[in-house]
């Protein structure tokens, strides 16, 4: 005989409750119009800025009293 794991029927889903609902007497701002669809930045631009930022960061490290990592400084 198979064992029943949950013998009680599932409860119906509850509606979400707002934790901080505005009071009826407060002045509520009207809803803003929808934003236009965002334009995506090409991935090549992100890559270029990431490489440039890494290079600039390595050049600025000595100004903060830090040393640049050497190839043998890894964990492995």
What does this entry look like structurally?
The model has no long low-confidence stretch (mean pLDDT 77). The two termini are 55 Å apart. This protein has one helix at residues 43-60. The protein has one helix and no strands. It is extended and about 65 Å long. With 76 residues, the chain is mainly alpha-helical.
Let me know the number of strands.
Answer: 0
Distance between the termini: 55 Å
What is the 3D form?
extended
Question: Which oligomeric state applies?
Answer: single chain
Q: What is the residue-averaged pLDDT?
A: 77
Beta-strand residue fraction: under 5%
Specify Rg, calculated over alpha carbons.
28 Å
Written as H for each helix and E for each strand, in order along the chain, the element string is H
Unreliable spans:
none
Instruction: State the major sheet.
Output: none
- How many H/I helical runs? 1
Structural class call reads mainly alpha
Please bin the fraction of helical residues: 10-25%
Region (Disordered): 1-37
Quick structural overview:
This protein is mainly α and 76 residues long. It is built from 1 helix and no strands.
């Amino acid at each position: 005989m198979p064992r029943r794991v949950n013998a009680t029927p599932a409860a119906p889903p509850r509606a979400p409750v707002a934790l901080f609902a505005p009071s009826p007497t407060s002045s509520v701002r009207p809803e803003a119009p929808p934003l236009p669809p965002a334009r995506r930045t090409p991935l090549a631009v992100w890559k270029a800025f990431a490489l440039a930022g890494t290079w600039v960061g390595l050049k600025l490290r000595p100004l903060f009293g830090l040393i640049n990592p050497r190839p043998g400084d890894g964990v492995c």
